[in-house]
Amino acid sequence: MKFTKMHGCGNDYIYIDCFKETVANESELAVKLSDRHFGIGGDGIILIKKGMKADFEMVMYNADGSRGAMCGNGIRCVAKYVYDNGYTDKTSFSIESMGAVKYIDVTVENGKVILAKVDMGAPILKAADVPVNSGNKKVISEKITVAGREFNMTCVSMGNPHAVMFIDEHPKDFDLDFYGAKFECNTDVFPNRVNAEFAKVIDRKNIEMRVFERGTGETLACGTGTCATVVAAILNGYVDNDVTVHLIGGDLQIQWSGKEEDSVFMTGPAATVFTGEIDL
């Protein structure tokens, strides 16, 4: 089976062109290929298919084999793949994931996509729809104690659930593996588990962040998590409407008007690492 390794800000996935390849056991394949010692290595796999509701479809699996609803870094890489490989000559097109359609504008240089701007849709703030168990209709700066430490969390869904915590220390000094795992698997509060973001506001236009993704653990970047973090920061009055988020793997530019019905826009890079073939 042929594959392409790609990443968006270091959030790396194994991409399989299902216009040419057939995958039988998608979840099992995700676990096998994602292993960084015995497989190709990645945060998961993404299958690229013809869309039913959009121009193309991405089917994403985390490294543990669980299905992911949306991946902001992944969708930019899918956009790069379909353009670079001649499946479209348009610079504006649509990609669906688990039925949700996203609209993408790509920036092309020397015939290859270098950046993609994605309309990520409006954030979901209603607690029951995130989902997060709370006595409040929306969870904004709500106190939660995890492993003996108190946090103020803001919960947002960008097609998948996020709990955003703003912390005083620099994210690089934060014990992400410990607290991230505690948040992810706290199903009393997060019935579908959760992606946990720990962020520090630098100024009105800059945030630094680390993320613990459900089903994978720490990744170098998370597109939906970055969007959720900026939404949370705006809701809490910490930042303006156009913010650069600095992640371990690189920077993402996020724009949101602050109006609940308006879309969040994410702009960032997409890169091909290598292509190959593996015997299954």
Q: Which stretches are poorly predicted, pLDDT < 50 over at least 5 residues?
A: none
Global outline: globular
Quote the distance from N terminus to C terminus. Answer: 7 Å
**Measured on Cα atoms, how large is the radius of gyration?**
18 Å
Quaternary organisation of the protein chains: single chain
Query: Helicity range of the residues?
Result: 10-25%
| Mean pLDDT across residues | 97
Question: How many strand elements?
Answer: 18
Percentage of residues in strands: 35-45%
Structural class: alpha+beta
Biggest β-sheet description: 18 strands, mixed
Question: What is the number of helices?
Answer: 4
| SSE order | EEHEEEHEEEEEEHEEEHEEEE
Identify the notable features of this structure and list them briefly.
single chain; 280 residues; alpha+beta; 18-stranded mixed sheet; 4 helices; 18 strands; 42% strand; globular
